Amino acid sequence: MKTAIYPGSFDPITYGHLDVLKNGAEIFDKVIIAVAKNGEKKGFLPVDKRVELIKEAIRETGLENVEVDSFEGLTINYAEKKGADVLLRGLRAVSDFEYEMQLSQTNSALDEKIKTVFVIAKPEYNFISSSTIKEIYNNNGDISKFVPLCVNKFLQEQRGL
């Protein structure tokens, strides 16, 4: 059974993330979305809320071979612990590639058994990032086109709408 880890901050999860996830779920037997905890960095949403929203978004999509978890430390160590074969990474634009290639090569140097697979997001999602979502949201813009319904609903409730 091939297991892939899809690591990231997912702060918040977007339709772009879900597009990569859907492709990964078609390729691999099991995909674990692993929300990275970074104790030195305050997130937009708490990690437990991100995990909850991702679980809800997955229920909305109907994907059955996906799990959600959170972790601290090196992604490669988490992948080893989970018995994963692959790290799943999404690419939106050429500008992502250099960073992702460097990360992939570093992970390979740490554990050459775990491979990295890149999935390219659909063109309608390749401009979406969590940072962009936060910028729009913080300036009272409409994020409903870019995030799952559960994320939009939660953030609107946070605003008191």
Keywords summarizing the entry:
alpha/beta; globular; Rossmann fold; about 160 residues; 6 helices
Describe the protein in words.
- This protein is α/β, with parallel strands linked by helices and 161 residues long.
- The protein has one domain: HUPs (Rossmann fold, 3-Layer(aba) Sandwich), CATH 3.40.50.620.
- Helices cover 45% and strands 20% of the residues.
- A five-stranded parallel sheet has the order 3-2-1-4-5, sandwiched between helices.
- The chain is globular.
- The termini are far apart.
- The model has no long low-confidence stretch (mean pLDDT 93).
List the helices and strands and how they pair.
Blueprint: E1 3-8, H1 15-27, E2 30-37, H2 47-61, E3 66-72, H3 75-82, E4 86-91, H4 94-110, E5 115-120, H5 130-138, H6 149-159
Parallel strand pairs: 1-2, 1-4, 2-3, 4-5
Q: Give the CATH architecture.
A: 3-Layer(aba) Sandwich
- What strand line-up does the widest sheet have? 3-2-1-4-5
The ordered string of helix (H) and strand (E) elements is EHEHEHEHEHH
Question: Which percent bin holds the helix content?
Answer: 40-55%
Low-confidence stretches: none
What is the average per-residue confidence, as pLDDT, rounded to a whole number? 93
Structure classification: alpha/beta
Number of domains: 1
Residues in β-strands, percent? 15-25%
The biggest sheet, with number of strands, parallel, antiparallel or mixed sense and barrel status, is: 5 strands, parallel
Radius of gyration: 15 Å
